[in-house]
Amino acid sequence: MERVLIIGSGPAGLTAALYAARAGLAPLVLEGLEPGGQLTTTTEVENYPGFPDGIDGTQLTMLMRQQAERFGARCEQKDVTGSDFSGRPLKVTLSDGSVVESQTVIIATGASALYLDLDSVQKLRGRGVTACATCDGAFYRGQDVAVLGGGDTAMEEALFLTRMCSKVTIIHRRDELRASKIMGERALAHEKIEVLWDSVIDEVLDVEKGEVTGLKIRNVKTGALSDLKVTGLFMGIGHKPNTDAFVGQLDLTDSGFVQTDSTRTSVEGVYAAGDVQDPLYKQAVTAAGTGCAAALEAERYLESLGQ
Ligand code: NDP
Question: Domain range spanning residue 281?
Answer without folding.
Answer: 2-113+239-304
